Amino acid sequence: MALVKEPSPVTAKDGPDQDGEYRAQTRLWLRLLACTTLIEGELRRRFREEFDFTMPRFDVLAQLDREPSGLVLGELPKRLMVSAGNLTPIVDRLVEDGYITRTPSTLDRRVQIVCMTVEGRKAFRRMAKSHGSWLASLLADVPQERVNGLIEELDELKGAVRDALQKS
Amino acid sequence: MALVKEPSPVTAKDGPDQDGEYRAQTRLWLRLLACTTLIEGELRRRFREEFDFTMPRFDVLAQLDREPSGLVLGELPKRLMVSAGNLTPIVDRLVEDGYITRTPSTLDRRVQIVCMTVEGRKAFRRMAKSHGSWLASLLADVPQERVNGLIEELDELKGAVRDALQKS
DNA sequence: CTAAATTATTTTATACTTAAACTATTTGGT
DNA sequence: ACCAAATAGTTTAAGTATAAAATAATTTAG
Question: How many Cβ atoms are within 10 Å of B16's Cβ, its own excluded?
């Protein structure tokens, strides 16, 4: 189960660090993580301060906003790339707070349908607008073509990683 | 305190979504998050399976690996971009497991110096090697120039975001 | 030379996260 | 019809994360 190409002996070009191979890939990962952490921290902070809301809760609403007829609960973990167990308390709380409803399916009593309420939708729209403008302000100094280029490149990167995961 | 340029009235070009402005910035953020989540999940899984270790613990060791004489404890939260309170239990556990030591400074008894042990260093090297090869395998299908290009672009993006945060 | 401000770190409260075990329900094979 | 396997969802245990309050030690100002 060889997941990795045998490290080619790079001997000639490596720098002062004797770390060995894969430096560029590791560096890319660290950049990716740093950018995400930086932006995520700021978004979290603002969600908290302005709306007393958390990002995972917002993410759930964002999914439901696109589905007027609601979603099977089990779809959420897949779309949000989080574990199922994780969503239970988050959904509980959103129901409790009146943003969404959770109704058991009549056809299959294991299944539950979650659906945004009118107030939920209203609250989401308001927050989504701020969310967009926060991002725009954070990324204001990144030229538009660079933004578009990165979108494309990261899409491809995501695809490449997914493929690699599939194969393993 | 205008953080955001007033949304220019895009009226003409917007697509089927009436989301409004900032679409590209939001899309970029979602891609960034998706890539990071995807890779992070896989790295976490492998750390767990192969070494029964977690990423935050590895991150602490990675910082200390570069500092043979140890680090002031307070440096860690800054470098790792996590909160200070968060590190206390992580450092506790690393000490307990013998990977690092924590000694109070003689000059300033508020300060503690953390330093990797020999076994810690050995364990770290072993894990770092795997970490690198996991990343290489995940990113194997991303061409080398693309990797290098992304490193640079993300570096600039990080700088731009940091500047934006500074100003706010 | 002491009171007040500052700094380093820990503690507390709340929330998120995963993996794995568990419950309830449905489905497919016999 | 029955029972084993599969599926949907929740619960549990351990760990990670933040913000904010608390503690302790040091520095600074008067």
Answer: 5
Strand C, nucleotides < 7 Å from a protein CB: these are 7-13, 15-21, 24-27
Task: Residue A37: list chain B partners with CB under 8 A.
Answer: 81
Residue A89 to residues A27, A73, A83, A85, A93, Cα–Cα distance (Å): 36, 13, 12, 8, 6
Q: Stated in angstroms, how far is A112 CA from D9 C1'? A: 9
The model's pLDDT over A25-49, given as tens digits with 9 standing for 90+, comes to: 999 999 999 999 999 999 999 999 9
Is the pLDDT higher at A162 or at A1? Answer: A162
**Is the Cβ–Cβ distance between B112 and B72 less than 8 Å?**
yes
pLDDT of the residue at B13: 39
CA distances from B41 to A77, A82, A96, B135 (A): 14, 9, 30, 12
Residue ranges of chain B with per-residue pLDDT less than 70: 1-21
Query: What are the residue boundaries of the structural domains of chain A, listed by start?
Result: 54-131
**Residue B54: phi, psi to the nearest 5?**
-115, 165
Nearest residue for D15, CA–C1': B54
Instruction: Say how many CB pairs under 8 Å bridge A and B.
Output: 203
Architecture of the B54-131 domain: Orthogonal Bundle (1.10)
Q: Could you tell me the distance in Å between the CA of residue B5 and the C1' of nucleotide D2?
A: 68
Neighbours of A55 (CB within 10 A): 15
